[in-house]
Specification:
Blueprint (H helix, E strand, L loop, with lengths): L1 H35 L10 E5 L5 E6 L8 E2 L2 E2 L10 E5 L5 E11 L5 E10 L5 E10 L2 E11 L4 H12 L5 H10 L12 E9 L5 E6 L5 E7 L5 E6 L5 E5 L11
Antiparallel strand pairs: 1-2, 2-5, 3-4, 5-6, 6-7, 7-8, 8-9, 9-10, 10-11, 11-12, 12-13, 13-14
Amino acid sequence: MNQSVEDQLRALKIYTVATTIILGALSVTAFRQSAQRARFSEIDVERINIIESNGNVRMVIANKARSPAPLSRGKPFLAASAGTRAGMIFYNDEQSENGGLTFSGARGPNGRYGASGHLSFDQYEQNQVVYLQYLDNNGKRHEGLTVADRADVSFADYIASRDSIRRLPEGAARSEALRRLDTARPGELPPGTAVQRVFIGRDTSKTARLTLSDKLGHPRLSLYVDSLGQARIDFLDDAGGIVSSIPSRGSGGGGRQ
């Protein structure tokens, strides 16, 4: 009789342990499934990191204070840029910054204001080459779409070289090294700069404009309607001089305003 009771108690213990393990496993599974897809009516957050399953970052949404410095292959550079741009930053498959959406706007103590909106996409291992931008300096506005060209070099490597040279003692050697770094080969672009190839938008003179430029950034064709409603097409040489216009200059079609 005692042996039978002991066997029953042992069986009950085994059943209890097994049941606890199964219920625990089901609870963890349910929690994981719930954590994979949650629904909120409203959340307050300072930063969201969108990552791949391996942990690689693909997008960061952040306020100004928690915004990241640019990344190149997962490593930050231009540290001074951290904490300066509220919005959304994109990253490619190699964890290099690939563009973003940023915005700002505030009125200063003197009553003047500044505002901006910026959506851009970067050249591979470079900086922005396609961007839609609004810039407002207390009512003096420039807004439009720009397509730009950049050198086929790593922007992060250029910044690293520049910062290394800047740490040298001031003098002729330092100045010459910076000059060589920023000097482009004939027919090519300096590594740290961009040249505008296409702009369509409205400039600070209140002119609606379409400008097409050559590979070195020299405007060669400009179609515009100025602030007085006068329309013109200008063809320019590489020094900015007007070669011909439609309507022709002096025909009463109006000038630039």
